Amino acid sequence: MKWITRERPKIDRLACPWLIRRFIDKEAEIIYVPFDQVVTQATALGATPFDIPGVEFTHYGDQCTFDYFIKKYKIKDKAVHTLAPIVRGADTDRHDLAFQSSGLWAISAGLAHNYTNDQELLEKGMLLYDALYSWAAHLQNVQHTQQPFENLLLRVFNDYLTTKRGGGKKIPAWANELKAIIQDQIDTNLTLKELSKGLDINPSYLSREFSKHFNNLSFGEYIRQERIGKAKELMQEGTYKLTEIAYLTGFSDQSHFTRVFKQHTGESPSEYRRKSKKK
Q1: Are 192 and 207 in contact (CB under 8 A)?
Q2: Which residue of 21, 36, 119, 202 is most buried, as measured by CB atoms within 10 A?
Q3: Nearest to residue 15, comparing CAs of 122, 113, 149, 170?
Q4: H or E, element range at 256
Q5: How far apart are CA 151 and CA 193, in angstroms?
Q6: pTM, whole model, 2 decimals?
Q7: Is 60 exceeded by the pLDDT of residue 145?
Q8: What is the pLDDT of residues 153-212, one digit of tens each?
Q9: Where does residue 250 fall: left (phi above 0), alpha (psi -120 to 50 degrees), or beta otherwise?
Q10: Domains, the chain, ranges and CATH?
């Protein structure tokens, strides 16, 4: 079978091809094309489109395309079901769903940054998900720090970080610089690790200190808030379609954009735009 989706994959568009080739059709051909060509090329090539709005294999509610493939093909493998919330959390910026989601996102974003050829990126993605599957199937109870003294040192260190208090309420220069960077690059896939390099700050320190200077919000919460704010501005301009606004504000697709927008505002983007026009 041939499967087709939009170019520059990161999470769902790597995880789903892995699932297809490992559990549905090992000879499957995966095709990546620009977003606006997926539907027309699907018809021309006799391929099944996935992970775009308006097709069968896409997001439903809070579920991502990976979830739909599992449901559609009745995949019962326990390790695959362990992977599902990890993939969903990474793909929808819900890193609270599984603590591995943030790591999967970081590695996937790094791969996409390092490999500009989508087929080469897919090859690396297959290795990534093979490794993640092996962990889910065989290694979930294995810890890197196996010796008692190692765990003791880690607990002491974490307790120290948790209880340590910084003095003063002055906003540090890096926080102001970080706000400016986020505003300028809100349409890109920002990660704390990448930002920490640009600021020349230890990523662990940045992660720990972030909420203190960003309205008590986590990095993911703050980014979503800023993206929604930018989306409102674009909707009021009246120049862009909602699908375009979703991509211009860094969302993975329109269904993701709609879901997050409604969580923040209590209404869908179309409802918000309609009310804005009446004012």
Answers
A1: yes
A2: 21
A3: 122
A4: helix 254-265
A5: 25
A6: 0.56
A7: no
A8: 556 556 555 555 444 456 788 888 888 888 777 777 778 788 888 788 888 888 888 888
A9: left
A10: 2-139 (no CATH), 173-279 (1.10.10.60)
